[in-house]
Design goal:
two-stranded antiparallel ribbon, globular, 4 strands, 48% helix
Length: 199
């Protein structure tokens, strides 16, 4: 039932937002040049890597793998897209394909999962939204172990109606969204990541 819902809703969203996606793609092309999309490797179901797709919101340059350390690279258009979460629209095609789900664990790069027990979160598809995504949007900070706990809790309680609750909660959070805490030292996880990436 969850997969059927993913297919129907993602297809519906794609139909209604496709003109908007075309406009966004053209704006990125005109303002920031090629490429239009940002493609990165993330860990998906059964710990298999997949190509994660978003609209490009940053200038070309060296990547640390965490946006908290790359604030100066975000373009003016990118800031708008991120604030409205429009950079995530291309993920709808990944949901339709079956790589992502509407609700699930937050898709992460492999290096951020090193040393953590990800066996439970790996049995479901990563999500467009989820408990960890909601928490991060509300708080602006979250360490990796808390994320794993939230992901595991979701897997234990996952069903169609619980997914609907998370989708409704996501809408409420976005409507009352506070500015994310993007400071580099906003969590121990970010401090540790920054230290490891610069040594």
């Amino acid at each position: 039932m969850i997969r059927i819902f993913d297919i129907l809703l993602s297809l519906l969203f794609i139909i209604f937002t496709l003109p908007l996606m075309v406009v966004i793609g053209l704006l990125i092309l005109c303002c920031n040049g090629w490429p239009v999309f940002y493609i990165s490797k993330r860990v998906g179901r059964y710990n298999r890597q997949f190509s994660h797709l978003k609209f490009r919101t940053m200038k070309k340059g060296k990547e640390s793998g965490r946006v908290f350390f790359e604030q100066e690279r975000i373009t003016s258009l990118g800031k708008v897209l991120r604030k409205l979460h429009l950079d995530e629209l291309p993920e709808l095609f990944l949901i339709l394909k079956g790589t992502l789900s509407l609700v699930g664990p937050r898709p992460l790069p492999e290096k951020l999962l090193t040393g953590l027990n990800t066996s439970k979160r790996a049995i479901v598809r990563p999500g467009w939204t989820g408990l960890a995504q909601i928490y991060l949007t509300k708080k602006g900070k979250m360490d990796k172990r808390l994320q794993i706990r939230l992901d595991n809790y979701y897997v234990d309680h996952r069903d169609f109606f619980y997914n609907m609750k998370i989708i409704m909660a996501t809408i409420c959070v976005l409507l009352h969204q506070k500015k994310l805490n993007m400071r580099k030292d906003a969590s121990k996880d970010r401090e540790k990541f920054n230290k490891n990436s610069t040594t």
